[in-house]
Amino acid sequence: MAEEAARRAVAELPLLRTAAGPRDREGWAARLKEEYRALIQYVENNKRADNDWFRLESNAEGTRWFGRCWYVHELLKYEFAIEFDIPVTYPGTAPEIAIPELDGKTAKMYRCGGICLSDHFKPLWARNVPKFGLAHLMALGLGPWLAVEIPDLVAKGIIQHKEK
Questions:
Q1: Are the CB atoms for 65 and 57 separated by under 8 Å?
Q2: Dist CA 85 CA 164 (whole Å)
Q3: Which helix (H) or strand (E) holds 41?
Q4: Predicted confidence (pLDDT) per residue in 116-127, tens digit
């Protein structure tokens, strides 16, 4: 059921066309516009579906992104700061999202709180360059990771709700 919801969410996202990264100044400006359009569309779709779960913003160059994400488990909201940099080889390389406050709390993380997306998401990204962007990263990368890891971390007592 979760996979079907993810497929529906991604099907409603615009595919990106510009194959430019931060090193290509003119192309990057066009790519960034496409990225923002897709992110806005994804957030609007999520709000309509009562599934609003993240906020993102970037620096002026669009190379450093940060914000918050949250996951509701057993009617309790778990909220985390997120951050990532756009790789210089973007869009050929997917960004690595970090949740610093969860650093070292699960085996599915790299140093500094980077979440592990290598097994499932990165091959999908590679097959869809340059069509996938940051909205796809959120929908197919971070969203499913949170859905698997947060309930597990709560069940193991590794993280607790702030009100407990």
A1: yes
A2: 33
A3: helix 25-48
A4: 888 888 899 999
Interacting residues of 124 by C-beta distance below 8 A, sequence separation 6+:
132, 140
Are the C-beta atoms of 133 and 139 separated by less than 8 Å?
Answer: no
- Token code pair at residue 135: 């909205």
- Name which of 111, 69, 61 is nearest 85 in CA terms: 61
Backbone angles phi, psi at 13, to 5 degrees: -90, 140
Distances (CA, A) of 52 to 17, 47, 69, 110: 26, 5, 9, 26
Beta bridge partners of 98: 83, 114
Residue with tokens 């992110």: 39
Instruction: Indicate if the pLDDT at residue 108 is higher than 60.
Output: yes
* Cβ neighbourhood burial of 151 (10 Å; 0-12, 13-18, 19+): middle
| Mean pLDDT, residues 65-90 taken together | 96
Cα separation, 115 vs 22, in Å, equals 23
Q: Would you please indicate which residues are annotated as catalytic (active-site) residues?
A: 116
Whether the predicted pLDDT of 145 surpasses 70 = yes
Contact call for residues 103 and 96 (beta carbons, < 8 A) = no
